[in-house]
Request: fold
Amino acid sequence: MLASTCMLVQCISAPAGASAETYPMIDPAVRAAAAAGQTRVIIELRIRPSFTPEGKLAGPTAVEAQRKAIANAQAEVLGRLSGTRFALVRQYDARPVMALLIDADALALLEAAGDVVARVLPDARVFRQQ
Reply:
């Protein structure tokens, strides 16, 4: 649990740094694992406006708007993955990330989704056990 939490904090606190016209950053360990079969990953979502911790937002309306942007991005990713072999492991209401179980076909679609996917990272808890 702690490793996943650390990966989640690292994922959120690191700047996405890429525009919607760029491809998402795919961790090489994810590529190798997906090529061999299904693997658990953390997806960092790209939302507009950029993610701000809820404590720094102007108030409840801003929090609600950001949560809606996160939910919309999550729904967009799940919709694009339709027809591939994937499973939703966890969604977060207040963080622009989600945990998925994916294979190579799903990874290819995520890689083409630079408008909503910033990064695809290994789930630290799963990769440390291997």
